[in-house]
Amino acid sequence: MASSQAVLIRDKAAYPTHDAPCPYFGTCGGCTLQDLVYADQLALKRTWLQRALEGLDLDTTLELRGLDDPWRYRNKAELTFSQVNGRLTLGYHATGSFWRVVDLDDCLLLSQPMAGLIVDVRQLAQASGQPAYNPKTHEGFFRHLTIRHSRLTGDLLVCVTTAPGPRDVMERLADELLARRPDVVSVYWGVRSSVADLAVPEELILLRGATYLDDQVGSFRLWVHPFAFLQPTTEQAQRLYECLLQAVRPAPDAIAWDLYCGMGLVAFVLASKFRHVYGIDSAAQNIELAALNASRNTIANVTWHLGKVEDLLLDRRFWLTTAKPDLVVVDPPRSGLHPRAVASVSAARPKEIAYLSCNVQTLVRDLQSWRTTYPRYQVRELVAFDMFPQTNHIELLALLERQ
Question: If you compute the radius of gyration of the chain from its CA atoms, what whole number of angstroms results?
Fold first, then answer.
């Protein structure tokens, strides 16, 4: 199946275009739909999703829920440093390029405090005298900038990821940034020695400020780590979880499993309707944060398990210590579920499965497995959330029921 970007770009010809408000549109690889009015963006995405889902022979109607304000909605940004003629640049990768970075002074998907922080960090990094990391030669220092913005408090958390190098440079940068920006409450230094172009560092050092960013989704107050998974659009995340909670039909004393639980938000939502919830994630940092936030929100009926889903669900000890689920929620990465995870969920025979997905192709693949193997599941509800206006991305929630 063709990629979503290729299909959406091809089908854009059916809609009138206008001048995009962002001066970087067409050069920056971050947005592809800014030259369509928002209603047409939603229509285009709905058409593409319906086409992608045709093979499922759905008895339900696809619903697509847009965002009230499709601008400056992101609560997190990951940007890349580069070097052009001796000048340090900071921004997103150029369209179709692994090497070129578009130098940004603003991004209309980020809050204004986040956009202003990009300018401040670039200036301070340039003044440090250290060069940007070169992914071709693997030389240089500054690699990535990660920003998180609390919509609750307005505070900012910053992580500058570099190659191994002098700590004193980063100490000065942190002090100067805090002097400029009172809204910055945390400055982290991430160190990455691997040549892979990833923003997640191998070592993370808190240079200044608070360990966590204080934020809120729905009624849940959250401590957020620099690289913890949180849906990047707070308003749509709240709607997504509310939709999940309204859609499930638990019996009294029902049990739920939350697979790929991250920092635990889905488990928190389910805890109000289920006697007990079991959360599984492969990252120790996520499990620690989930337990911390459960305690903060006085949620006592969740048990956390550390391990890969496809491995843990084949471990006899897990089955002996975990109650059989009435509902299984999965929120896997873009690559979808491991075949062993699909088979293990089937073996658990839950009455309901909820699948959260950011990739319709892998969603269709995995749903087909549950529709054609024993026990068979049928899609009862399918709701799409435009979590990423102006881009080709979308988030889906599928509710399946055992036949």
Answer: 22
Under 8 Å between Cβ of 238 and 218 = yes
pTM for this one?
Answer: 0.94
> In 3D, which of 352, 161, 130 has the Cα closest to residue 249?
352
Q: How confident is the model at residue 61 (pLDDT cuts 50, 70, 90)?
A: confident
pLDDT of residue 56: 84
Contact 162, 141 (CB under 8 A): yes
What tokens appear for 90 in the block?
């900071």
Structure-token pair, residue 122: 């670039």
CA–CA separation, 361 and 3 (whole Å):
8
Q: Residue 376, Cβ neighbours under 10 Å: how many?
A: 13
- DSSP summary character for residue 141: S
Residue 21: asked if its preceding bond is cis (omega within 30°), the reply is no
Q: Which residues contact 181 (CB under 8 A, 6 or more apart)?
A: 117, 120, 156
Going by the DSSP 8-state scheme, the letter that residue 133 receives in this structure is P
**264 closest CA partner among 211, 318, 223, 325:** 223
Return d(Cα 20, Cα 108) in angstroms, integer.
11
Burial annotation 343-353 (CB, 10 A radius, 16+ → b, else e): ebbbeeebbbb
Residues with Cβ within 8 Å of 118's Cβ and at least 6 positions away in sequence, in order, are 77, 79, 90, 91, 104, 105, 106, 107, 110, 145, 147
From residue 351, alpha-carbon distances to 77, 266, 280, 346 in Å are 38, 18, 19, 10
Q: What is the mean pLDDT of residues 212-229?
A: 96
Largest CA distance in the chain: 66
Which residues, at least 6 apart from 219, have a Cβ–Cβ distance to it below 8 Å? none
Indicate the helix (H) or strand (E) that contains 185: strand 184-191
Reading the block at residue 192, the tokens are: 């990455």
**How does residue 60 score in pLDDT terms, banded at 50, 70 and 90?**
confident
pLDDT of residue 1: 45
Each residue's pLDDT tens digit, 137-171: 999 999 999 999 999 999 999 999 999 999 999 99
The 10s digit of each residue's pLDDT in 312-362 is 999 999 999 999 999 999 999 999 999 999 999 999 999 999 999 999 999
